Amino acid sequence: MEAFIRHSGIAAPLDRVNVDTDAIIPKQFLRKIDRVGFGKHLFHEWRYTDYEGTKENKEFVLNKPQYRNATVLLTRDNFGCGSSREHAPWALADYGFKVIIAPSFADIFYNNCLKNGILLVQLSSAQVDQLFNFVETTEGAQISADLQSQTITTIGQTYKFDINSFAKECLLKGLDQIGWTLQFDQKIKNYEVKNQQTKAWL
C-alpha cells in the first residue's frame, strides 16, 4: 500500500451515526476477492435510487457537486460497525477516501482501515461538530491531516489526535503487517539456516 505522511482534500460531511459495513458496501457486491472495483458500490443504497446503480440520489452527500471529489470523510459515532468484512475499507479506498474523521469507530473496522492505508482520526464529539460546521458552511472546504505531527488542520484551527505507534509507523512506511514482516526477510532466512545447522533433528 502507499505510504501515508500527510493529505489535504475536500471533506464530505456524512451526518449519520452507526453506519455499518453493509451500508458501506452491501453484501451483494462482495463476489470479488481482489481489492479494486468496489468504489462504485460504496454506499450503494444511499447513492442510488435503483438496484442497478444507474440513477443517482441527488440528496445524498457524495452526489452533491461540491463533494464529488472528496477524499476526506467526516462522519459520526460508531462508524464501521457490523460485520468484520474487509471489503468496507477496500470500497472506501477505491472510491478515493484517504482520511476518515469521527468521534468513534468500530474496532475491527478501524484496524482494517489502517491495514489498507486509510487514516482514521478519532476526535471528540465537540471537535467533530466544529468540523461539520466548517465543512457545511465553507465552499470547497478542505481538511488536512499530518500523520507525523498527528494533527488535523482547517482554516485557523488545529486538532491533535492519538494513534497507536505501531500503526503510525506502518502507515508512514506504507506497510501492512505482512509487509512489515518482510522487512526482516534476510534475518528470517539466516535464522532458518542456523536452526537447521544446530537442530538438524527438527
List its traits.
202 residues; alpha/beta; Aconitase, domain 4; 7-stranded mixed beta sheet; globular
* Class from secondary-structure proportions: alpha/beta
**CATH fold category name:** Aconitase, domain 4
Uncertain residue ranges: none
Rg, Cα atoms, Å: 20 Å
The fraction of residues in strands falls at 15-25%
CATH class: Alpha Beta
Would you list the SSEs in sequence order as H and E?
EHHEHEHEHEEEHHH
Biggest β-sheet: count, sense, barrel?
7 strands, mixed
Q: How many helices in DSSP terms?
A: 8
Terminus-to-terminus distance: 37 Å
Mean pLDDT equals: 91
Architecture per CATH nomenclature, i.e. the level-2 architecture: Alpha-Beta Barrel
Helix content: 25-40%
Number of strands: 7
How many structural domains can be distinguished in the coordinates? 1
Compose a concise summary of this entry.
This protein has 202 residues and is an alpha/beta fold.
